[in-house]
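TA notes, week 10

Several of you asked for a full example with nothing omitted. So below is the full record: structure tokens for the whole chain, then the designed sequence directly under it. When grading your own attempts, check the secondary structure regions first.
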């Protein structure tokens, strides 16, 4: 579904991603792991077109390198950014409608919003509330629902469990597995390495913008680099 070759993302003189190759098969969860500053988030925003990048990015066989982010989103790639980035001054309902603003008619947007409120009952309860007043877990549910409003086929998730209570972390990971079971392909950036490897099909470890290890989730989990640096073994 996604093929990335020699991806480079830089911010001025800083090279955040340095010649990264990445393949994501349809229907799988592919985890990107690594320490802070390894280039994980930069990889996602580079793929989504939010920052300039070099290299080749193909989505379902189509070259999307250099396309604007709104075009990439319309093609079927959704992004849930780190920190959720919900529109705090707007209501929950308004956030949902904005999630499908580029992708559907008003009637279709309303239908999708109703589906999201059914899927996430807390969003129905908080529908008229300002999104900035939601708890961290509720905001994460809203960020996921907003992304799903566009009916993506590939979902880029950047640290979805960041700052959440343990019970909510489990809820988020259960939801990721559920979305995969429905046919959604997921590229997951996460600092919770054990839980990520438990649900992922394949994984890639980034270090200083480069791939330091890759393989199936089971292979990565048992590798020395992950055992020592991330799993405490």
């Amino acid at each position: 579904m996604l093929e990335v070759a020699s991806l480079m993302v830089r911010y001025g003189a800083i090279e955040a991603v340095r010649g990264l190759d990445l393949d994501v098969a349809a229907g799988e969860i592919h985890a990107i792991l690594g320490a802070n500053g390894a280039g994980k988030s930069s990889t996602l925003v580079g793929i989504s077109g939010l920052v300039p990048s070099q290299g080749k990015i193909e989505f379902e066989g189509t070259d999307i390198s250099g396309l604007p982010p709104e075009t990439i989103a319309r093609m079927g790639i959704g992004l849930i950014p780190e920190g959720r980035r919900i529109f705090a001054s707007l209501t929950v309902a308004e956030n949902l409608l904005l999630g499908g603003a580029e992708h559907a008619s008003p009637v279709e947007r309303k239908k999708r919003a109703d589906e999201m409120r059914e899927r996430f009952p807390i969003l129905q309860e908080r529908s008229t509330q300002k999104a900035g007043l939601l708890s961290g877990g509720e905001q994460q549910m809203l960020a996921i629902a907003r992304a799903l409003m566009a009916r993506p086929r590939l979902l880029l998730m950047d640290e979805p469990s960041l700052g959440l209570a343990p019970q909510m972390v489990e809820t988020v990971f259960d939801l990721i597995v559920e979305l995969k079971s429905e046919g959604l392909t997921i590229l997951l950036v996460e600092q919770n390495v054990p839980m990520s490897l438990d649900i992922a099909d394949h994984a890639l470890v980034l270090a200083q913008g480069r791939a330091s290890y890759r393989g199936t989730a089971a292979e990565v989990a048992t590798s020395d680099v992950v055992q020592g640096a991330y799993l405490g073994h």
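The radius of gyration is 17 Å. Use that as a sanity check on your answer.
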